[in-house]
Task: structure prediction
Amino acid sequence: MSFAAEYEAAFAQFLSNPSERSLRSAYELGRDAVAADISVLKIVSVHHTALARAVDGRRETEQQSTVIGAADFLIESLAAFEMVQRGFSEARRAAFVERRNSRILRHLSTLLSDESLASGDLAALEEALQLVAENAREITDAELSRVQVLAPTLANPIEVISEDAGPDTWSEVLAPDVRAAGPARGRERAFEVPLLSLSGSTLGTIMVTGKGTGAFTGDDEAVLRQISEMAGAAIERALAYRG
Result:
């Protein structure tokens, strides 16, 4: 049976015996419409046809009560449609983000294992860290990210920044009270994770700030720590070849 035929039959049943049980069929039809990839316009069109047939030949007083009942049936169907469709959309978006993040992490892992870092060339290391900053910003939906390497074997610290905002925002982020916030406090504005060597010593930090969709989440922190582990290993390897 087609969706239109099912809708018309359920609608007629509801009009002949209005109840929570018969109204439940409207809810089920809304759910079925999402699964069948039927649009809202199609549902409204089917409803209009069913309503036109239902009022045909009825007296004016009966037509009015039919139209009122029809509104309840349509609202119930569209409410279910919207609820289920929103759930599907969120699930699809979550799956898309997961695939994108996995792709970014695989690409970054390949770059950080490149043999050029074994040369000890600081320019190659800075280029790799710039990619780390850019990917950290993208994967956490941040406006700004910063990678700092403060290893004692370096004459001067290395700092790279990736930003999608003005310099005033960055100046605010680098204020002492925000730098001290860390993951536990001020996550709405910024948080950072350490870059660690394989032995556990601190080589620097990765900071992100200004999440476009609200506050940073535990998932953001987890993926940032994953990035920091890969970057820390690459930094340690690069610095080892500098003697």
